[in-house]
Amino acid sequence: MGKRTAHRWMAPVLASLLLLGGCGLFGNDEAVKEIDPPQETSYVKDGQALQEATGDKQGEKEEAKAAETVKRELYLIDKHGFVVPQTVELPKTQAVAKQVLEYLVEDGPVSEILPNGFRAVIPAGTTVLGTKLEKDGTLIADFSPEFKQYKPEDEKRILQAITWTLTQFDNIKRVKIRINGYDQEVMPVNKTPIQGGVSRADGINIEASGVPDITNTHPVTVYFVAQQGDHTYYVPVTRRVPNKEKDDIAAAIHELIQGPDHGSGLVGVFQPDAKLVDAPKYEDGKVTLNFNEGIYGSNKKNVISDVVLNSLVLSLTEQNGVESVAITVNGKADLVTEDGKPLTKPVTRPQNVNTGTF
């Protein structure tokens, strides 16, 4: 793995960025309320369609709602091999866990809405036989035997995509895999351990190369930037940081400033001389960060680039208990966004990430 470098922000990339609206990310003035999956989702061992299992009335309700849609995050594989969230419009349904899994199947319904440069993760021909949400927040997903027909190098990507897609819902904490009704202790091809379930704490797009002693480290997930054509999107990457780093917020900011690995296809958006003037302050879900002037994204004083702000908020709100981020420079809260709006309030995480259509 190449040396990590911090890339300076370039004008051609800036032209493709999503603009901020108010104090939310990606131009969302009103947050979209996240809808949890139902407490009990039908579980059908023999692969019978859920509509058939729940009766004609259920089917009629689904047909009546077919024209209605809701935004969901699907974790897909991009051209660089990263597992990336993409927000898409899906038909409304009560069986949301089963639905998002079906949209992860290659050559399935996702084919009509798949962004350019992305591919689905679950092998073509796989049937989602059923899902069951247990009281402890574990979602059991049962797949047909075709699930085993994937390339070895895709195994962790498949597991991460399934886990992160399902855990977008607040009441799903971890995921267990079944194949044709049988619990799996390991993934079927490369034998990645999955006994006990997999959660977001296990990471995504994990970088562990160059870490001499992984046992004395812990994971921190940060968001870097990539491009597809004229479109910019955010990619979560899990890195290992030494256990001696007690402040995960400061550790995440350090990794963001370090930038992505050279040759990864990702872009660094922080100036290399950016740094925190004081230790991050946390209170009641809000993190306050006091940077030096290196946080500015252009020659214009007091302007913070959208991608710097977005990367910070996405990365820090990935951590438990962090709900919003406030930013000052040398103790002064006089920053403005690229479109000239004062950044006077803490910025919260959007309900959906990467909402653009490619």
From TrEMBL:
Residues 1-27 form the signal peptide. Keywords: Signal. InterPro entries: GerMN. Residues 97-188, 249-338 form the GerMN domain. Residues 349-358 have a biased composition (Polar residues). It comes from Geobacillus genomosp. 3. Residues 339-358 are annotated as: Disordered. It comes from the Bacteria. This is Sporulation protein. Transmembrane segments: none annotated.
